[in-house]
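Let us practice reading a record.
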Amino acid sequence: MRLCFTRRQRAVGGLPVLTALALVAGALTCGPAHAAYSITVPTTASLGSVRVGGGTLAGSLGTVTISSDSAGGSWAATVISTTCTTGSGQPYERISSGLLQYRSGAATATTGPVSAVTPGQPPGANAVTLAGGRRAFSATAARGAASSVSWSPTLTVTVPTNVVVG
């Protein structure tokens, strides 16, 4: 996952605001070796704006879909983030990955014969920080039929009080 803050200098009540755009990238591990899997993720997602001086940004990252061919097998998707940095990377130009929280939620759609569909953070579970790799979702697809699993994760960013726009 990559989180980018726009350079636009917008203001709310005379104060500049941060606007966050999230780009999702997932690691996919699967088996057997001859199965073909693909992951489809939105290219961007807007988490809204917050006044400079701290606050929280939160929103849906959009629908993520993992599809498998007829070879079947099990797979697991992992999500991770680095520290979000702008400018020269001074402390006031960084948001650590520990301030980003991810929740996969339940599957929003499935097709074909899939079993053991398991969200990394099911509804009601706590979100997890992205300071390290986290399981986003996993499933097992039956042999002989194509299948897919979709979910719509949420991301929450705690914006430090000393961070700057940029």
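A brief commentary: The CA atoms of residues 31 and 70 lie 13 Å apart.
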